[in-house]
Amino acid sequence: MLIINFEEIFTSFYLFMPRLGGALLIFLVFWILARILRKAVLRFGHSHRLSPDVINLMEQIAEIALIIFGLVTALGTLGIDVGAMIAG
Q1: What does the domain layout of the chain look like in residue ranges?
Q2: pLDDT, tens digit (0-9, with 9 covering 90-100), for 18-73
């Protein structure tokens, strides 16, 4: 028989909130840094007169790599074992 203990659920949720907030903050910081890096790569490409296609590719790779790194860091903050994800 399943007995739901709302006090236990609320306590667990309350204790989990700082981790969740920290993970969201970490991901937000990495997302902002990815946007800044994308603009920096765009300026670098234009100043070195690279092809627009090459600049676009470099922008996308830099942004996606930083967002993935931020996601893995945020998941690690939540307590999720990301070792297998990194190895994959």
Answers
A1: 31-88
A2: 999 999 999 999 999 999 999 999 999 999 999 999 999 999 999 999 999 999 99
Please give the model's pTM, rounded to 2 decimal places.
0.82
Q: Band of the pLDDT at 1, cuts 50, 70, 90?
A: low
Contacts 24+ apart (CB under 8 A), 64-71: 64/34, 66/30, 66/33, 66/34, 66/37, 67/30, 67/31, 67/34, 69/30, 70/26, 70/27, 70/29, 70/30, 70/31, 70/33, 70/34, 71/27, 71/30
| Residues comprising the chain, all counted | 88
Helices (H) and strands (E) in the chain, counts: 3, 0
d(CA 63, CA 32): 10
77 vs 45: CA distance, rounded Å: 35
